[in-house]
Each structure stands twice: as C-alpha cells, then as structure tokens.
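Annex B. Sample input.
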Amino acid sequence: MNRKYRLTSSTDFKRVRRTGKSYAHPLAILVVSPNDLTISRFGVTAGRVLGNAVRRNRAKRRLREALRRFMPRIASGQDIVLIARPALNEAKWSDVLNALTTLLEHAGLLEE
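Annex B, continued. Sample output.
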C-alpha cells in the first residue's frame, strides 16, 4: 500500500480509536473517523491476544491484502483502522473477504 494511503503515527491511530465509529465482526473490528483530506487512509493493527509476532504479522498481512482489493471502491475522506481478532488467522480467505465486505457495507464506505 502506498505510504500516502497509510496511517503512520500513533497519534492518528489514537485519534481514530477515540473519535471514530466502530463496527464489529467475529474476524475483525473496523473503526472509521472522517479526515479533512481528499483521500482515505488505512491502518491495520493486531494485539497480543492473537499470539506471537508471527501470528500478529500474518493477521495484518491478510487484512492489508483484503483491504487492497476494496480500496478503489472505498469512499474518500476517511481514516480507517482495522483491528484483527483471534479467529482471523484460522479463517478461510473467502471468509476474510466476506468479513471485510460486511464491515465496509455496514459503515457505508463502499461506493458503486
């Protein structure tokens, strides 16, 4: 993912978590907060509840790849944080895509 589309600072992550609206799914949590930019920025995180660094990084890679497929259809002007849940690493790839589709639709972020 290009750097201009990423949330990079911890203050941005904290702001989105504090002021954003969250949507939950058994595989991931989506938190959305409007920004004053013409683009949407994305951040992916995984807590220690997922396990060691290998499992956390795998979960983040899976979420980033799924998110990359939806980026052209996501509305602009949003900061989006995806938080992996423990079931994500054991889920099938199609379930991960369906989970992200469901979260983005509930948040009203998908444009046709």
